[in-house]
Structures are given as C-alpha cells and as structure tokens.
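so ive been stuck on this for like two days lol. basically i have the seq below and the ligand is S-adenosylmethionine, smiles is in there too. i just want the complex predicted, nothing fancy, no docking runs or whatever. if the output looks off dont worry ill sanity check it later, just need somthing to start from for the group meeting slides
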Amino acid sequence: MGQATRDLYLDLLVKCLSNLIYGPPPLDPWNDGLFRANARPGRDRHSLVHTMVGILRLENVRELVQRAIDLAVPGDFIETGVWRGGCCILMRGVLAANLIDNRKVYVADSFAGLPPPNADLFPQDAGDILHTIPELSVSLDEVKTNFARYSLLDEQVVFTKGFFSDTLPSLEADPFAVIRLDGDMYESTYVALEALYPKLSLGGFIIIDDYGATEQCRKAVTDYRAKFDIGDKLQQVDWTAVYWQKAL
Ligand SMILES: C[S@@+](CC[C@H](N)C(=O)[O-])C[C@H]1O[C@@H](n2cnc3c(N)ncnc32)[C@H](O)[C@@H]1O
C-alpha cells in the first residue's frame, strides 16, 4: 500500500470514528443538540461516535503509532480505558494500513464502567462519582461489534476484561511500543503506570488522555514520574492529553 492510499484510508477511519461523515441524529439524549464538525475538541458526547477523544487526540494516536512503526520501536500497543473502542480501532487500523501482522493491540477495560473509589488505598479518588455514570459503561460485545464494523476484529486484537488492579499487574504482554492511558481516576492511572510503564520499549510513547481533564489523573502521573525520576519532556496534544517518549 502506497503512502497516498494509506493516508486516504486513515483519514477516513478518523472521520468515521468521530462521526464526521453523517453527523448525529437530530434528537440525542446525551448531547446539547449542537454538532461542531470543525475539529471536534472531544468535549461533546453523542450517541454515534466510537470514541469520545476528538480529532486532535485521534491524530496523535495515529501519528505516534506510525512513528513507533517507522522508528522500529519494538512491541505491541495498548489502551487502558477504551469506552466504545475507537482509539484501539484506530491503532489496529494503522497496523492494517502498514500491512503489519506481527504486532497486537491490547484493549483493556472493565467493560462495565469505572470502579468505585478505593479511598483507603487511593485517597485522591475519595468522592469520585464517575462509577455512577451509566454512559461510561460499554460492554465487551459492543466494543467487539464496533471493531467488526471496520473489519478490524481479528487475532491481532486482545481484550483484557476487568478492573485494572486485577488484570494489568499479571498481563502477559511485553514489550509495548505505545501505551495510552484513559481511565480518568488516580487509581486507574497509577495502577496502569505501575504495571505497564516498565514494559514500554525505549523510544516508545506513553499518552495520558486525562492529564488536563482531571486533577486525580495529573497527580497520579506527577507522583509516578517523581517516584521513578522520569524527566522525559511532556508534550501537549490538546486541552487535556499529553505524551512523552521514553528516553533511549
Ligand atoms: C473516558 S472513557 C475512555 C474513552 C476512550 N479512550 C475513547 O476513545 O473514547 C474511560 C473508560 O475507562 C474504563 N475504566 C476506568 N477505570 C478503570 C479501571 N480501573 N478498570 C477498568 N476499566 C476502567 C471505563 O470503563 C471507561 O470505558
């Protein structure tokens, strides 16, 4: 597949994942009725999108997965906190567009929403109410169906079901080329960093979706980086997401 064909396919994938092709239905219980087709900032919600992250963060996923491939960074790809699966579908799509069949995409989620806060272990999450929001709970079947809609459900996609504290420490996968964290809470971010960051290849990328959006996420990242003396420069993606490249 040539560069132009690859770009055409991946441009279309990004537009489909953010529902820029058809727009939302006129009556949607989970949005404000406005459709902002111009560079969706990922702050709105509606019933059709397969990701809530917005165009800049999707383009960031596309760019970093492509860079990892081009730089021959060893390993697989993972997102922790996938909702309807869109970012992971894009990761799988970038692999497909590069005809890569020896790397996997790990799709990690409870597929049942966020955990209630565990304030004994993670006091930073005390009072968090995200676990009470039903729209944040998307079943494994629904996510698999979304992958299948793009013809991207195959053996290169690995689903890891359960709360991160139960699944990630024992995840049998190593190394990773790109890690994307999108679990909102302190616990969800810190547990994922502890379990996965040591497995990130040198030169690989870690993306933190909620860095600007939630204080708990930002604190988890700051604490982890301080504890392990990580000084790699944070790069801003949009109003919330950041990433850094693990120093070679
Ligand atoms: C903000 S949504 C993720 C958005 C998604 N990345 C996208 O592209 O639209 C947060 C997701 O994280 C999951 N989640 C958060 N904390 C979790 C945890 N500790 N264990 C398992 N899943 C968790 C929720 O179930 C939810 O699907």
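Residues 178 and 231 are 18 Å apart (CA to CA). The first strand starts at residue 76 and ends at 80.
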